[in-house]
Amino acid sequence: MTAEVGTAPTSLAAAVLVCDTAAMAAVPSDPIRVVEQWQARAWGECDLSAVDELAADPMVRHGPSGTVRRSHDELKQDLRSYQRALGNPAIEVHERVLDGDRVWSRVTMRGVSVGTGEPRTVHWLQIHRVDDGRIAELWALYATDVSW
User: Fold this and answer.
1) Judging by DSSP bridges, how do beta strands 66-70 and 134-143 pair with one another?
2) pLDDT tens string for the chain (148 positions)?
3) Phi/psi at 15 (5° precision)
4) Which of 22, 24, 17 is nearest to 2 (CA)?
5) 140 class by beta-carbon count within 10 Å (0-12 exposed, 13-18 middle, 19+ buried)
6) What's the rounded Cα separation, in Å, for the pair 47 and 138?
7) Are residues 86 and 111 in contact, defined by beta-carbon separation less than 8 angstroms?
8) Strand, helix or coil at 97?
9) Which among 120, 126, 54, 121 has a CA at the least distance from the CA of 95?
10) What pLDDT, on a 0 to 100 scale, did the predictor assign at position 8?
11) Angle at 73 between CA 77 and CA 98, to 5 degrees
12) In the chain, what is the straight-line distance between the N-terminal and C-terminal CA atoms, in Å?
């Protein structure tokens, strides 16, 4: 059941459908929401479809090893590698701030190494630049020996 624009929905279910459709349409343009979904799905769940939906192709990543351009296929390979190191980590966001098209995050990920069974904790400072609903660029620093 659908309601035409400018008319009231004829049932509660239709009202929920209209509201959900409007909310979903707003997601791609909201940089905070894009980064939230990226961290939860790509990292927390190792949902590789998040790469196709939320990352530019290529995505530029700046980090301790330098600057690289990663295609969707390369990002998926990276995520598989990270999953071996952290499993499906619990992600704690300490702070997230929107500044124009950039989302600044301070994040802790806690997981268990798939290979060794050892617990792992990684702390991140990340800046995601979102363009047209996709992460176009990422600056990331990480540490394993800090606690915040």
Assistant:
1) unpaired
2) 444 444 444 433 333 333 333 444 334 579 999 999 999 999 989 899 999 999 999 999 999 999 999 999 999 999 999 888 888 899 999 999 999 999 999 999 999 988 899 999 999 999 999 999 999 999 999 998 787 7
3) -65, -40
4) 17
5) middle
6) 19
7) yes
8) strand
9) 126
10) 40
11) 85
12) 49
Token readout for 79 is 């995520």
- DSSP 3-state assignment of 15? helix
AA identity, residue 66: G
Q: What is the number of residues in the chain?
A: 148
What is residue 38's three-state secondary structure? helix
The CA-CA-CA angle for residues 107, 109, 111, to 5°, reads: 175
Residue type, 106: R
